[in-house]
Design goal:
The structure is a homodimer. In chain A, α3 (147-158) crosses α4 and α3 packs across α9 (307-318). The first copy, chain A, has 10 helices and 18 strands. By secondary structure, the first copy, chain A, is an alpha/beta fold. The longest helix of chain A has 19 residues, at 37-55. Chain A folds into 2 domains: 2-148 and 305-355, Quinone Oxidoreductase, Chain A, domain 1 (Alpha-Beta Complex), CATH 3.90.180.10; 160-301, NAD(P)-binding Rossmann-like Domain (Rossmann fold), CATH 3.40.50. The interface between A and B is large, with 45 and 45 residues. β16 (298-301) of chain A pairs antiparallel with β16 of chain B.
């Protein structure tokens, strides 16, 4: 079958061998697979990502020197059931899944970051039957594939210490920031201030329900806290407390993941704010802890999602609480995948490109 | 009256003028006043502290170029009531207070960091009657003066997202770390692992009830998590969750406040840990956000305490739940205060030195 393969720091489109199914596995046809920012990063820095996972005491057991087929934001159609499967979902059923699988040795593989199992930038994949979720009738395969990136937002919001009426600022409206906006709105939180330099992304933020949209090139997003009664300074916060005026905790979502963003948020955030760090800055970064102490900030680093958050996100999309298609800006076949990676390096051209390997 | 005055980067012992009492104020005799680590820092870096407070939108309205009498960890005895006072507490009553006062212009002054009101390194102070708390009968004046530093620990513990059985690691057993240990034990939390390079400070940690005492020169404190069932790696944490084994959230208290400590804790802390940052690192610092993200750490920066935490700490000390005297290692008069500052720069010589200006 054909696949877009990560080989060294490039993506090449070639034929690959298919493997036999092991116990509990199903073979599926990939219907749609989103290109994730971490894939863009991994093309060039897979070594560093693997090393980092090891230092955190977990991570991917993959060899960056070998071929990998990326793609972990997918929907698929069941083709064939392997040995020892339940067959509750028949061939032809459309499915999504948390992109993880058990390998024959009993270890965990991340689909899309595995030397063993190809990810969604291939015509067919091998998935674990027990982990499959059926795509609800009527939901498009592209929208279903967006369950994974939107689950990242659901998890970030679940980790936020939101109070009724907490004003939220989402910094960076790439797929992660947009997923956070969608999850906040799906759960009835807000007001939501959204900031991004890109007009394309600001438009998507608006579609997903952000209340205030800011171009940081023209104004600081932090000028908007006051409109929601959030004290901008320690003095104002103390005064509000002395006057018995309860202020819901302000929440900032860092969804950029670049050096210096954290420090700029420590400088700009209101006192007492929680900064939920969902953007992955892969470089070492510089912060001023004494400023964070003076303002009593909380930095909550978040990663991934739980199977429950993933399943709930699928239903939020299927039942219209999240407009998943608001982030999809282009569709490509496997042959165009290398070019799509290059295009995503420019933040204004696209938000989410979906690969359709059957094209 | 005599006072130990901060003038430029030195402490000098001289006579200063006494001021008349304004409405609602009382004049007190200073009985005991602890030397705080922030005073040691402020002798040399008061400009930077003032600037930092301003950048946080609060801070001290003081001019570092003018004389300041430091000292904010005090107990005192009422000498004289000013105009418009209630006189509920008679002359001769021993008192403590949150070191803050309202100036005649209606603004807030921090006693011990004010050009207007001398702090506790002086024979007499001017305090606000409405803020005074009576020292319970039988509690020594020195122990009462320790209310302030122990309140810092109470606040840090109040900001920790402790779960029943949460294992706690206190890194650095200076006065802040020791106050954290005392507050954890006073509230029935633990187990508490305490780490410090200094034998003097490790001994104090033991007296205050730490369960495991570690010399980081001989072993990493992080080797002790396993004994309390805390998974050391992401893999182990996932496995524990899959086996339905609930693990109480591990909490790390950063009580050192020096560059690189935060990054070493990000590297060493178990996945899912909260790091409560109570040590004040005044320099910019380097962290690896991607490692904190992989481990889903939470960095909670804390500062000061509330009036309620202060009052509760006084009662914890008076009722024997906190052995405040465990941290007091020396007593000096005003003339010896400059030498005491120099001695505290060596962490092994002392933990807390108390100034007794009446000596």
């Amino acid at each position: 079958m054909r696949a877009a393969i990560r080989r060294g720091p490039t993506i090449v489109c070639e034929e690959i061998e298919e493997q036999p199914l092991s116990t509990g596995q199903v073979r599926v046809k990939t219907l749609a697979c989103g290109i994730c920012g971490s894939d863009l990063h991994a093309v060039h820095h897979l070594d560093r990502m693997v090393e980092l996972g090891k230092r955190a005491g977990g991570g991917m057991g993959l060899d960056p020197a070998k071929d990998v087929v990326f793609g972990h934001e997918f929907s698929a159609e069941i083709l064939e059931h392997g040995p020892g499967t339940q067959k509750t979902l028949k061939a032809g059923t459309r499915v999504v899944t948390v992109p993880a699988a058990i390998n024959p040795a009993g270890g965990m593989e991340l689909i899309g970051y595995s030397n063993l199992y190809p990810g969604g930038y291939s015509e067919r994949m091998i998935l674990t039957e027990a982990m499959l979720l059926e795509v609800p009738n009527g939901l498009s395969s592209e929208a279903a594939a967006m369950t994974e990136p939107f689950a990242v937002g659901a998890h970030a919001v679940a980790k936020a210490h939101l109070e009724p009426g907490s004003a939220c600022l989402v910094v960076g409206c790439g797929p992660v920031g947009l997923a956070v906006i969608a999850a906040l709105k799906a759960r009835g939180h807000g007001p939501v201030i959204a900031a991004d330099f890109s007009p394309t992304r600001r438009r998507a933020a608006e579609v997903l329900g952000a209340d205030v949209i800011v171009d940081p090139a023209t104004e600081s997003p932090h000028t908007h806290w006051g409109a929601y009664g959030v004290p901008a300074t320690l003095m104002e916060a103390q005064l509000a407390r002395m006057m018995g005026r309860a202020v819901a905790r302000p929440i900032v979502f860092e969804c950029v993941g670049a050096p210096n963003v954290l420090q700029s948020l420590i400088e700009g955030a209101p006192p007492g704010a929680q900064i939920v760090v969902a953007g992955v800055c892969m470089e070492a970064d510089r912060i001023e802890p004494s400023l964070a102490i003076n303002k009593e900030l909380e930095l909550t680093f978040v990663f991934g999602y739980s199977p429950e958050e993933f399943a709930r996100t699928l239903h939020d999309i299927a039942e219209g609480r999240i407009d998943a298609m608001a982030i999809v800006t282009s569709r490509v076949g496997l042959a165009e995948t290398p070019a799509a990676f290059a295009r995503l390096a420019r933040p204004d051209a696209d938000v989410k490109i979906v690969v359709e390997p059957w094209r």
